[in-house]
Structure formats: C-alpha cells, structure tokens
Task: structure prediction
Amino acid sequence: MPPRTDFAQERCPVARAMAVLGERWAILILREAFYGVTRFDAFERALGIAPNILAARLKALVEHGVLRKVAVEGNRHEYRLTDKGREVYPAFLALKQWGDRWMALPEDSPVGSVIEVVERSTGRPVEVAIVPAGTVPPMTVRDVKALPGPGASPALRERLETMHKDRADAG
Amino acid sequence: MPPRTDFAQERCPVARAMAVLGERWAILILREAFYGVTRFDAFERALGIAPNILAARLKALVEHGVLRKVAVEGNRHEYRLTDKGREVYPAFLALKQWGDRWMALPEDSPVGSVIEVVERSTGRPVEVAIVPAGTVPPMTVRDVKALPGPGASPALRERLETMHKDRADAG
Result:
C-alpha cells in the first residue's frame, strides 16, 4: 500500500469530524437535539431507536463532548448540546440543503422540503453559504427555527408547533 | 419499538445525505476530488487505500451521481465531480471548520490548521456561515483554493503547489 500523505485521515479535520458525525445515529440524534429534544424517551420516540442503541450512542456523544448529561429534578437526566455540539449546526444545515436539493425522494419532488429553517427574529429563510471570513454576522442554531415545509405531514406540523410552544413556555 | 415520526431517516434529507457521504472513504475521496484529483492512481496514492476498496467506493459515488467516469486519451479514465458532487463542498468545508476548531489533534494545537481555504480571486480566507437566503453571492469550490496552513508539512506544501501548477497549466 502506498504511504499516506498529510491528507490522510489522522491529519484531516474532515476525517476527524466524520469519525464523530459519520455514524448514522449520531447525526440523527444531533438533529433531534437541534430541534430541542433533551430527554432519553423523547429521542427514543422521535427516532424509533432501540433503547440499548440509543444509550450507547448518547454515551459516545457525551464522551466526544458534543452533548452533556445534566441531572434534572426527579432523578432524571437531560442531554444538552455543548458549544462543540451547537457548532455542528452549519455542517448539519449544509447537509440538509444538499439532501433537499440532490437526494429528494420521488414523493418529495411534488411537495418540496419537509422542514424550512428560518431566522427566528425575522422569519426569513436561511441558507449555508461560503463567504469571506468575518464578513457576515455569525448566526447559530439559536438564531433559527424549524418550520414545517410544504412536504411536512400533519404529524410533523403538530410536533414542530409543540416544540416551539415548549420553548416559548421555557422563556 | 415506537413508531417512527416524519423526522425518521427515510423522510430526512440529512439522513439521505449521510447515506452517501457518511461512508468513511466517500468523504475522503470527495476531499481529493475537491483538491483536483481525477485519476484512479492519484486517489490511490493520496489516500493509501487498497485498489479493490477504492474501485468499489468510486463505483458507488458514480452510481450516486456525485462523480462521473469519463474516458480520456490512452484508454484511461478520469473521475470528475458532477454538479451534485461540487455542491457537497459547503458541507465539506463546514465539517472542516468544525474539525479544525473542535477535533484538533494535540499536536495540531501549536501549529494550527493543515489547510487554509481562500478565495481564488482575492486570496481572502473563506468560511461557511448561515445567512438569510439569497443575501450573499454564491461561492463554489471553483471560487476557492486550498493553501498549506501553518500545520502543513513540507510534503503537503509541495503537493498543493503541484496541484495549483497543474490547474494553471490546464488553463
């Protein structure tokens, strides 16, 4: 086998990122966290994932410092995004953008995107773009919200409305 | 097992994107393609990947429409990015940004990033940002180039210079 170059995995930040985010469940768990899920049972319900697998994936994400496990009232726990976890969001949104454009399911095409992401303060749709460094004000996952897109089912609409209501109640 | 919601894999564009890009070699092969690699032997040399695995991964990327296999002179082939493939770049760059910031190897920290991505026309560093849709001029992989960062080894510097020279020669 030829020698690896400096591009090889152990030197490449993208390869290192994918070592954490490339695992199928990891990105789906983060997706739920971005949309406000914090409780084990809520991740389980949203993802339809076996509890033993969910427990293992959450443990790995906590070990990687992407989520932190916080004790809350009633001997329960929440899994909350760390700064490291929140900063995955631009990559997540870029993957969503590409998936919406290039990986649409046949039944998507007539109805369009399932989720629309908009700026919380203005309601304007957002996108991920390559820009000269430092030329646009940084927008984070906290500055946006997920709305049901044209492709969303009634069940998803209801779920998103509940999520936003819970957030509003939480202050 | 609880029923899957609309967030579940088959409806989620991110899950669909990860089905193509989440495979470890896929993102490394695309990385090389973004940096100008097109030939089987060049991918093999850059990645230190077994030829049978490389052949299988390239075939999958062609089937997914991310690369296309083009016959060139001398009974050889090139693997070229399609529009679908080129549009993975913002997600790739967002993953790089996150990896550089949050997944740095201990030996990285003193020396900094291995690769710096700059705007081809101005030499300004670029970054991936979340912006209101349509508010910044679209920049693609064709508008940027990879320069050796402070963490780059002499071997990588040489390789990047050769790549840029080849591109310049190609017009």
